[in-house]
Structure formats: structure tokens, C-alpha cells
Amino acid sequence: MKRIVRLAAAFVALLPSLTIAQTDQPKKPEWCRALPRPEYKALERVPVDDPWFEVYQVVPQVFAIYEPHQAEETISYLILGEKQALLFDTGMGISDIREITAELTRLPIIVLNSHTHDDHVGGNWQFETVYGMDTEFTRTNAKGSRQDAQDELGRGMICGDLPKGFDSKAYASRPWKISRFLHDRDKIDLGGRTLEILSTPGHTPDAISLLDRGHGLLFSGDTYYPAPIWLYRPETNLDDYVTSVKRLAALAPQLKLVLGAHNVPFAQPSVLARVVTAMEAVRAGKVPGELQDAGKAIYRFDGISFLLLAHSQEVK
């Protein structure tokens, strides 16, 4: 699932010609031949006008806004309360997520990001109210970036057609204004629904999970999703990651669903303990890695996988 195939695409994506025209994209990269993912058959699909997105109601008043045409397969979540809504991530910014939210609700919308990598903040600039974690990493990324966004358009990264009128050469994460800074344990009242911020650094310094205690939901961002979890970038801290997943695993008895930010928008809470066990096994040197490009390796244990910097003595 998710980023496995992106590893192969990265060989080409690292070449100088990272910005390529829509007509140069292969129509069926290998990764998108697995689509549609069978798990989506269990969900209610909500029709929307923009074919770049697919929208599913995961549980009542929670919509997964899925981008299946790009290799990240990013999922943003629109969570509705009685008085306002929260959009947890704004996706790639390749098409207009604000138009999608306008089709789903008339409530005022707060934007909050699971973290500020480019594939989760692409539509932030479209919204007036954007909350952010009180970290330097968040402040820096709020200025926008070009190269990370351009990497997302590398050969083999797009499945099918880009939206009409999309300018691949100009594609970048646009700057956005942070309306309010948040901290661990802060709460957001949507009216009849309260969301609690859980600081879960590791993947990034500003990574968070979002806890809806009243409905037994945990929105885990990139701390957990059902594919190789990326933990190799300079901003990653593995010690923090272990602490964070242990914190989430302790919540499992209170949860009904875990909703990650890529590929498939639901998992059983029991997966969180497996993530802890898998990461501990990897760090103890018990799991050999499968060498990938650019000095990275995938480590797999009990159905959980991580993409890490390779350690030669542990790599096949």
C-alpha cells in the first residue's frame, strides 16, 4: 500500500527534470493498478463535482477526502460539529479542497494539520482560520515551499490526469497565516463534539494526533497509516516516535477506530500496540531491512512497516 511504489518512482523523481508536463506522465503507474482499494467498498461514497477527489463518510459527520490520483494517496478529514467544522489536513493543493468542503458543509471551518509536510498543507492558504502547533518547524513550513511540492509530480507519481488548468511548473505549497497556536492537550469545541490535541512528535516535530473521546475516534496523521511509515527525513526523531506511539497505544481501550492520513481511512485500535512492538523490534536490530534507493530501507514486522535510513548490517 501507499508509498511502497513511490520508492521506485523516487529514482526518477530525483533527476533534474522534476517538473514534467501532464502529457509526460504515464497513464497507469504500477502503484495505481491496485486501485480502487477494496476497503473503500465498506464505506458510503459521497458524490462531489471534482474528479480529483473521492469523498467517503467513514462514520456519521466525518468525511474522508481522499486523493487517489497521486502516489501519496493523502486523506484529509472533515469533522462536523453542531456549530463549526474542523478540516484535519488540506491535502496536496493540486485541486480545490475548499470547493469540496463547501459541497459538504456550510459550517465555518477551522483548519488544523496533522503535521506540516507539503502533502498535508496544500490547501491551507484557501482558509481564513488555520490553527498550528507552536513549533519552529510549523512556522517555517507556513512560509511555503516549492521543491517538496515539485517532487510530488515526478514521473510515475500521478495516476491518470491532473486537474484541468493545473500549472505543474508553478506548483508549490503556498504560504498560509496561522490564526492560533496550539499545544498538547488543547481542546477544540465544535459544538456537541470536542477534539483534543495530542502532541505525537517523531515523524515531524509538529506531528499531532486528534482524539475524539466522545466518539472513540483517533485521527493519527502520519504517526500511523497502513503502509511503510516514513521515518527517515532529517526532522524525524525515532526516540520521540516510540514515545508517541506508546502514548497512542495506551488509548486503544477507549477507541473504536483509528483514522490515518494515507491510503485507507480506518484501522482497528489494536494496530497501535503492533506498531509499538514492531518499532521496538526494529530498533533492537531484530528485523532485517530491504534496501531501497538513496540509503533507505523498509523494515517489516507483523504487518507493520517503516521506511528508515538503512543500517548496512541489517539490510538484505
Structural commentary:
With 316 residues, the protein is an alpha/beta fold. The chain has a single domain, classed as 4-Layer Sandwich (Metallo-beta-lactamase, Chain A), CATH 3.60.15.10. 18% of the residues lie in helices and 24% in strands. The chain contains 7 helices and 17 strands. It has an 8-stranded mixed sheet, covered by helices on one side. The chain has a 5-stranded mixed sheet with strand order 9-10-11-12-14, with no helix packed on it. Helix 6 (238-249) packs antiparallel against helix 7. It is globular, with a radius of gyration of 18 Å. The relative contact order is 0.15.
Question: Mind sketching the topology for me?
Answer:
Blueprint lengths: L3 H10 L30 E3 L7 E6 L2 E5 L8 E6 L4 E4 L8 H8 L4 E4 L5 H4 L8 E4 L2 H6 L5 H5 L28 E3 L4 E3 L4 E6 L8 E5 L4 E5 L7 E2 L7 H12 L7 E4 L10 H13 L5 E3 L4 E6 L2 E6 L7
Report the radius of gyration as a whole number of Å.
18 Å
Question: What count of helical segments does DSSP give?
Answer: 7
CATH third-level topology: Metallo-beta-lactamase, Chain A
Give the tally of structural domains: 1
In which range does the helix fraction lie? 10-25%
Mean pLDDT: 92
General shape:
globular
Distance, first to last CA: 21 Å
What proportion strand? 15-25%
How is the largest sheet built, in terms of strand order? 1-2-3-4-5-6-7-8
Largest sheet: 8 strands, mixed
CATH class: Alpha Beta
Number of DSSP strand runs: 17
